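Risk register update: the risk of archive-format incompatibility is retired. Evidence:
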Amino acid sequence: MASTMSRVAASSMMLLAMKTLVALLVSKMAPTTAALAVLAAEIGNSRSVFAERFMAVTGATPVRHLTELRMQLATQWIARDQQSIDRVGQKLGCNSQAAFSRAFKRVVGAPPSAVRSPAGLYKTQSGDPDRIRTCDQ
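Archived output:
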């Protein structure tokens, strides 16, 4: 019974953490170590314990997960909504179009302009998972 309760509590904490990550995404706040420490503190964990638990639940680090979410949004805004690459980079809090384009290519494996091509982006291979970084890095 206690084991079930602790799993429920851990699941609730991770749900709260995921909601907070989405809030970070919307607020354009960079997924820095400091931001993750604040997030971890909100759910009563250290940054390292939070990252470990987050990885166990999602299969990705919080920074990687947030960066991938941002690039999924970017893909959607460019392809479906036909927004400019510069505008999408601004919406995601990147300092420049070049910084956004580099981050997009690292994560997705193709430049943002590939989203607009007739063949589409979805036939490209994903980026190097060990090189996940934000626009500012």
